[in-house]
Design brief:
The structure holds two protein chains of two kinds. Chain A is of the alpha+beta class. Chain A is 20% helix and 43% strand. Chain B folds into two domains: 35-55 and 211-391, Cytochrome c-like domain (Cytochrome Bc1 Complex, Chain D, domain 2, Orthogonal Bundle); 68-210 and 393-398, Cytochrome Bc1 Complex, Chain D, domain 2 (Orthogonal Bundle). Chain B is elongated. The termini of chain B are far apart. Classes of the chains: A alpha+beta, B mainly alpha.
């Protein structure tokens, strides 16, 4: 029992003995380099186009390794990437200590990228010329503490095991079924969305003109905005002037104001990062760097902080 | 047995009825006469119409932007191969007027191979950002980069300035426009004179504007209250494509305004080019433009009080991974192959890509699956081909200057 438990532990937890490795979490392939995590995937664009692989690569050829950082620490870390032939004899179960036991790593290294800082996303192109078993070793040096973390992941290139095919076919069939099911559902939900949109249009709420006053959500402030671009148009950078008053109509000075927004229907933000500065006129704030890059429905969120009072207002715009 | 063969069974009736209905539905979708345009669609037309292109915005960063002498000077420089390291490469090697100032290649080929597909110059005076990744923020700053790119002109500031000094026409023109020749011992003077070369080229490039396409004539006709059914400007298929373009195919989310581009950066998940890493796009471009000594906030902006709003309020962040600038859709016929690396040869393949909207290799694909049918994609393609038009510029700007300048206007010289 004890022995079996041990074996199960070995099989189910590939990171147990390394300092990290590649695991699938919620359908997402993740590489853990110490506490640093990244979305990990491999492509073979020429052969399999946009198909992504987590560890094993089905065919030889130009393979693109991608790590999309989930932790900012990787953006400033020095990362090095090594690919060796898997000579450990342990196949898929090769771990950090197996790699450590190898005397001459360079002799079996087929690719080494020296430590480099690569912000945002790491990519590497490796032309595999031979099928076989390999091990990837990725190290990251924390830029503050200088501690080096390492992930080890064994993988195969050109795996052809017959055993996989029935699963793939079954999975494809299941995928197709779920696709049919999903697309039917998606169509229904689009209809629901359309209905909701129509309902929203009929509801008694209005779209801002290029100049209008709004009372903030909690009622602390009245915000009037005036666009210097009249009428509002897409693809033109321009400024707004905000005038902020309290409930009694007194101008609010020394407020911290932030402006952001986006298109909820398209799930994206503003194309610029507007900045707000107080002007010499009491209660007036200039918002510079406004631009809209798409026609349609936009929401602009203005957040106002004065002392310990915080309130915000949402300005709907139709361009 | 025979009776079993001849009997019409209920399921057969049902199947035949179902097939007939399906065909009728498809046929109705495909061949139904166009209905009247809605007010919303008419307002979309107006927003895309070339007649609504605002007049050319002034470029206050370039004091000679609208100076005819500078434009003529820039025209000469644009076609002058002496500015390159081997005397064989000019701007027009890759930006060929006959190909709408592109080269018909996946990636530009001059001294070596460029990083990306050669974009057209036509209409770029309206863009706050230049290059696929927007690493330059003015036409003049952009014009400088190829001169010093080892794969393009492979030249240097000093070499370019020595040519200006040694050709007497150039020397005179330069001094008339910008004053005394620079002291080549002083880096800032060299840089300023080099910037002046870019400003002259930009004065020429500003004159290259898109002309009125068949689509624009149709819009004008319809906005004037003309009968949209009985006209010979657009075919029925092209009109079906137009309806998709402004509707279901969602093209105008990015390809909007009279230039059919928002000049913004989007990740649409293209496949990496063969043998290359996925293009990082704007995430690097935004760092480059902020660090560029020739940017709007740099020393060489001629505006004493520059606003530089685009640069100062530029957006950064991971959403920009693999994003590239929306290209104009005017004149696609002359600007193939497509996408940032020219990795897509045909318009049909580009449309097929957008129809599927696969997950991006790096970053996030902003586009979503369209699920259009084959004939709809063909209609869309037919419509896109109505956006071609001659360049709206004086004929003399569309070829090498008449005299006094050596050129490689045949455009066939790709250097190797």
């Amino acid at each position: 029992m004890c022995r079996f438990g041990w074996l199960l532990f070995l099989v189910l937890s590939p990171v147990a003995f390394g300092h990290g490795g590649v695991v699938e979490e919620d359908d997402l392939c993740v590489i853990k380099i110490g506490y640093l995590r990244a979305h990990f995937k491999i492509y073979v664009p020429a052969e399999r186009q946009h198909q992504e692989y987590c560890e094993d690569i089905p065919v030889r050829g130009d393979s693109v390794f991608v790590m999309e950082y989930q932790h900012d620490g990787l953006s400033s870390a020095e990362i090095d990437f090594r690919i060796i032939r898997n000579v450990t004899g342990k196949g898929k179960f090769a771990r950090m200590q197996d790699v450590d036991a190898i005397d001459d790593l360079d002799a079996i290294t087929i690719r080494y990228e020296p430590p480099t800082v690569v912000p945002d996303v790491y990519t590497l192109l490796q032309p595999f010329e031979e099928d076989g078993e390999y091990i990837g070793i990725i190290s990251a040096r924390n830029s503050d503490t200088q501690v080096v973390y390492t992930a080890v992941f064994p993988f195969e290139v050109g795996y052809t095991g017959l055993g996989v095919w029935p699963w793939i076919i079954a999975a494809l069939f299941a995928l197709q079924l779920s696709y049919w099911f999903m697309s039917r559902r998606a169509r229904q939900s689009t209809n629901t969305l359309a209905l909701l949109a129509v309902a929203a249009l009929l509801a008694p709420y209005s779209i801002a003109k290029a100049e209008e006053s709004w009372v903030s959500d909690s009622g602390y402030f009245t915000v009037t905005f005036r666009s210097e671009l009249q009428p509002l148009a897409i693809n033109r950078i321009h400024s707004w002037v905000l005038h902020v008053e309290d409930r009694d109509g007194n101008p609010i000075t020394d407020a911290e104001i932030t402006v952001n927004g986006g298109m909820p229907e398209h799930n994206h933000g503003l194309p610029t990062a507007p900045q707000v500065n107080e002007t010499s006129k009491a209660g007036d704030y200039k918002v510079e760097g406004m631009r809209f890059h798409m026609r349609g429905y936009w929401e602009i969120r203005i957040q106002i902080d004065v002392g310990d009072q915080r309130d915000s207002v949402m300005v709907p715009l139709d361009l | 047995m025979t009776s079993a063969k001849q009997r019409i069974r209920p399921w057969m009736v049902f199947a035949i009825a179902a097939i007939t209905l399906l065909l009728a539905y498809e046929g109705w979708l495909r061949f139904a006469p166009p209905v009247d345009w809605s007010d919303e669609e008419l307002s979309q037309f107006a927003s895309l119409w070339i007649g609504n292109l605002p007049s050319l915005p002034p470029d206050t960063s370039n004091a000679v932007a609208d100076n005819p002498a500078a434009a003529a000077f820039g025209h000469q420089l644009f076609f002058d191969a002496r500015l390159s390291a081997n005397g064989m490469i000019s701007c027009s090697t890759c930006h060929q007027p006959v190909r709408h100032f592109t080269d018909g290649l996946p990636k530009g080929v001059a001294l070596g191979e460029s990083k990306r597909n050669t974009p057209s110059i036509v209409g770029t005076a309206y863009s706050p950002w230049l290059y696929w990744d927007g690493r330059k923020d003015s036409q003049w700053a952009q014009a400088l980069a190829p001169l010093e790119d080892p794969n393009e002109h492979g030249s240097s500031r000093l070499h370019v300035l020595s040519i200006i000094a040694s050709v007497s026409d150039y020397r005179k023109t330069y001094q008339a426009l910008f004053g005394a020749a620079p002291n080549l011992e002083v880096q800032e003077e060299v840089d300023r004179a080099f910037a002046n070369i870019g400003k002259s080229i930009a004065a020429y490039e500003r004159l290259l504007l898109p002309g009125e396409a068949r689509f624009d004539q149709y819009v004008e006709h319809v906005l004037d209250g003309g009968d949209h059914l009985h006209q010979e400007l657009l075919s029925k298929e092209e009109i079906r494509g137009l309806r998709l373009f402004i509707g279901e195919a969602r093209c105008t989310e990015c390809h909007n305004g009279p230039l059919l581009t928002n000049n913004e950066f989007h990740n649409t998940g293209p496949l990496s080019a063969p043998g290359e890493l996925p293009d990082r796009g704007r995430i690097d471009g935004v760092r480059d433009v902020l660090a560029d000594p020739f940017n709007c906030l740099g020393l060489f902006n001629d505006d004493p009080e520059p606003s530089c709003a685009e640069l100062r309020y530029v957006r950064t962040g991971v959403e920009l991974i693999a994003a590239t600038r929306t290209p104009s859709l005017r004149n696609l016929k002359n600007t193939a192959p497509f996408q940032r690396k020219g990795q897509t040869a045909t318009l049909a393949a580009v449309l097929a890509h957008y129809n599927k909207a696969p997950l991006a290799m790096i970053g996030h694909n902003e586009a979503t699956e369209l699920n259009l049918r084959g004939w709809e994609l063909r209609a869309l393609e037919a419509f896109l081909n109505t956006l071609g038009a001659a360049i709206a510029a004086d004929e003399k700007w569309l070829h090498a200057p008449e005299k006094g300048v050596r050129s490689d206007s045949d455009g066939e010289n790709h250097g190797d």
